[in-house]
């Protein structure tokens, strides 16, 4: 697996879900570590750095989705009582 293959798969819409994309990207880094075994080699250090960045961005994306979902639930929890109140009071007279 390499970045050009992942890019082509993205361009051709061959990923059915985000996790398939994540698996392929992680496979790139796994292959890099498997074939570049010198711990202080530039390739090994760069692949570990890129893996760290990729993992952090993935975690941040997941966290933002959780926060967004939580905020949406909180907004709906506020809207429902307001809606119930407005339908029961039938406005001011």
Explain this structure.
- The chain is mostly helical and 93 residues long.
- It has one domain (3-88): Histone Acetyltransferase, Chain A, CATH 1.20.920.
- Helices cover 81% and strands 0% of the residues.
- The protein contains three helices and no strands.
- The chain has helices spanning 3-11, 18-35, 42-89.
- α2 runs antiparallel to α3 (42-89).
- It starts with a helix and ends with a helix.
- Residues 89-93 have low confidence and may be disordered.
Structural class: mainly alpha
Provide the CATH top-level class: Mainly Alpha
**Rg, Å, rounded:** 23 Å
Whole-number count of domains: 1
Strand content: under 5%
Beta strand count: 0
**Succession of helices and strands:** HHH
Main sheet properties: none
As a percent range, the share of helical residues equals over 70%
The fold-level CATH name is Histone Acetyltransferase, Chain A
In CATH terms, what is the architecture?
Up-down Bundle
Instruction: Describe the oligomeric state of these chains in a short phrase.
Output: single chain
Mean pLDDT: 77
Which shape, going by the Cα principal axes? flat
Give the termini distance in whole angstroms. Answer: 70 Å
Q: Extract low-pLDDT stretches.
A: 89-93
The number of helical elements comes to 3
